[in-house]
Amino acid sequence: MNKLLHLLRYRLAVPRVSWQLTLLGLIGGFCASVLIVLFIGFIRFLKELFAQLTVELPPLEHALPLVGVAIILLIAISLGLQYYRLGIPFVIYRIRTHNGSMPLKNTINQFIGASIALASGFVVGREGPAVHLGAAGSGLVGWWLKLPNNATRVLSASGIAAGIAATFNTPLAAVVFVMEVVLKEYKMHMVLPVLLAAACGAIVHHQLDLGHSLDVTLEQFPAMDWKIAGSLVLLGIVLGLLSVLFAAMLGGVTQASYRLPLTYRLTIAGTVTCAIAWFVPELNMTESEAVIRQLDGSLTFELIAALFVGKLVACSVALGLGIPGGIIGPLYAMGALATGCFLTLLRPYLDWDPALTPMFIIIGMGSMMAASLHAPMAAMVAIAELTNSPGVVVPAMLVMIPAQLMVGQIFNKPSMFVQQMQMQGMTYEQSPVVLSLQKTGALAIMETNYQWLSDIDDMGSVKGLVLAKEKGEAHDRLFYIDPDNGERLRMEGIDQQASLAIAYQRLRRVRKGAVYVYGDRREQLLGIITWPMLAEYMHKEVA
User: Fold this and answer.
1) Pair (261, 286) in one structural domain
2) How far apart are CA 406 and CA 402, in angstroms?
3) Does residue 18 sit in helix, strand or coil?
4) How far is the C-alpha of 109 from the C-alpha of 77, rounded, in Å?
5) What single DSSP character describes residue 499?
6) Does 433 map to a domain?
7) Is residue 429 packed enough to be buried (19+ CB in 10 Å), middle (13-18) or exposed (0-12)?
8) HEC assignment per residue over 234-289
9) Are residues 146 and 18 in the same domain?
10) Which of 170, 298, 316, 459 is the most exposed place for a label (fewest CB within 10 A)?
11) Are residues 300 and 379 in the same domain?
12) Residue 493: predicted pLDDT
């Protein structure tokens, strides 16, 4: 068994398409899906529990967010406030800087805290926690098998895709989101396991009816005359401006409250949510309900406008003050509601065909998310999947492109995930060299053909690649003998799971010498990586 594991680790250290990594992506997707099922089941249980509490104690009906805050704080303090970094920005940060490993206590905080926030009425989405839990569940496979970090990183990305697919039933959009927002690259050896994990998440969604499905099929698409095209472009500009407004509000709340203790921040968030829900009882309406109830005519213009403003403020306050939850669901809902207001205000000036209303609202739902997160491809694929209508893609382009240009070009705003990371001090920028070397495990290029001396003074006429230690010293005081000049260079050890980026960071300052790679124990020497070997590999990659 150990031999098979060693062979698997050697194989996965090389960034190439492999059936082993693809199969592990499926297993990781299944593990992620199990966590999502438990998460959604726990939310439903809590909602029923809170509903019973409000029946027995009617005053609690308008104070549930504060009850939720008390429980969230209790859990956070019990686990340690240093483990309270949660959500998609934290996951992206860990993918880029820690190869996707998710600390257990952060994951527990995310599971329980987000469940309580969603059940108690905060305006947050469940896809953020689903992404965190998916990455943790799938990455656990890599951690348990002690796979190279480059493979574990792909497995964590696969779990993210499974989490999104299980939440929204949009497997292809989940894959595009991972490539466009999380990994920011498209490599075939990464795509296959991510695809399979997303398919696993979608199957789980179908089999267990996890909810949040949007049962709307678009059957009528307009001929693109100047009036329709102009309306779509104008909608894109409006949604782009609203995305900028939302980013400014979220950023302002985050900066203003950054130095406040967590207890104060969460209490303020609960109080504000209670106040808004008092005036707008439908505040906790999901994105699916926001679309369907507009289409069946059960929402008046005044209520649509009130819901949009209420969600805009409540979501900015909740996420800015640290309530655990996601941002995509609220963006979907705000986009749909803003589009409903836009159509109502535009109707007196255009000879409007009511049959086009569903198309506009669905496109608006995805466009605000696309502009805010800089994810137009994922948003276009998502609305096509949600509506089973590929024809929506072309009209969606006329909305999403101007919306994206307004946010990124006119106002020069980054993705809201990047904005949140910057505000929380999570620096994730890496040099191109490090990013490239993260994709390959140390096992892939290490040299195993070397000579070993138990005493560094016994050099004699030994030639070639030589490792030695000083007499009487511990095993971890190893030296590399430079074959060109005989210089003795102290070596540092790196774990068998490490990527070449770790070897590079150890050697780049002096640009000579070597590191040794060890196995399950530090005394288990597997091989070495010299600076010339690393430099040759980097030149090959660039070429």
Assistant:
1) yes
2) 6
3) coil
4) 10
5) B
6) no
7) exposed
8) HHHHHHHHHHHHHHHHHHHHHHHHCCCCHHHHHHHHHHHHHHHHHHCHHHHCCHHH
9) yes
10) 298
11) yes
12) 85
Give the CA angle between residues 49, 54, 58 to the nearest 5°: 165
Last residue of a domain, one of 365, 389, 423: 423
Please indicate, yes or no, if residue 435 is contained in any of the structural domains: no
Closest CA to 50 of 119, 96, 117, 97: 119
Residue 286 forms part of a structural domain: yes
Selection from 133, 183, 218, 180 nearest residue 391 by Cα: 218
Q: Do residue 191 and residue 271 come from a single domain? A: no
Pair 198, 231 in one domain: no
Buried b (16+ CB within 10 A) or exposed e, 500-518: bbbbbbbbeeeeebbbbbb
What DSSP character marks residue 415?
P
Q: Which tens digits make up the pLDDT trace of 295-316?
A: 888 889 999 999 999 999 999 9
Is residue 426 predicted with pLDDT exceeding 80? Answer: no
Place of tokens 């990371």: 421
| The 3-state secondary structure of 423-457, one letter per residue | HCCCCCCCCHHHHHHCCCEHHHCCECCCEEECCCC
Is residue 263 domain-shared with residue 284, that is, in the same domain? yes
- State the pairing for strand pair 466-469/514-518: unpaired
Interatomic CA distance for residues 178 and 185, integer angstroms: 9
The count of domains in the chain is 3
Domain shared by 149 and 251, yes or no: no
- Among 249, 180, 246, 241, smallest CA distance to 402 is for 241
Decide which of 213, 242, 277 is a domain's last residue: 213
**Model confidence pLDDT, tens digit, residues 81-131:** 788 877 888 888 888 888 888 888 889 999 999 999 999 989 998 888 999
Q: Which amino acid is at 234?
A: L
221 located within any domain: no
| Of the candidates 406, 385, 400, 408, the residue with the CA atom closest to the CA atom of residue 232 | 400
Q: What is the DSSP string of 446-495?
A: -B---EEESSTT--TT--SSEEEE-TT--TT-EEEE-TTT--EEE-EEEE
Burial class (CB in 10 A: 0-12, 13-18, 19+), 337: buried
Q: Which pLDDT score, from 0 to 100, does residue 100 have?
A: 82
- What is the pLDDT, as a whole number, of residue 305? 94
Whole-angstrom distance, CA of residue 250 vs CA of residue 415? 12
Q: Determine phi and psi for 59, rounding to 5 degrees.
A: -60, -20
Q: What is the pLDDT of residue 58?
A: 81
On whether both 184 and 245 belong to a single domain, the answer is no
Model pLDDT, residue 522: 79
Range 372-384 average pLDDT: 91
pLDDT at 541: 65
The label of the residue with tokens 């535009």 reads: 346
Residue 451: φ, ψ to 5°: -105, 145
- Provide the residue range defining the domain that includes 346: 226-423
The CATH number of whichever domain residue 483 belongs to comes to 3.10.580.10
- 8-state DSSP, 413: P
User: Cβ distance 221 to 359 under 8 Å?
Assistant: yes
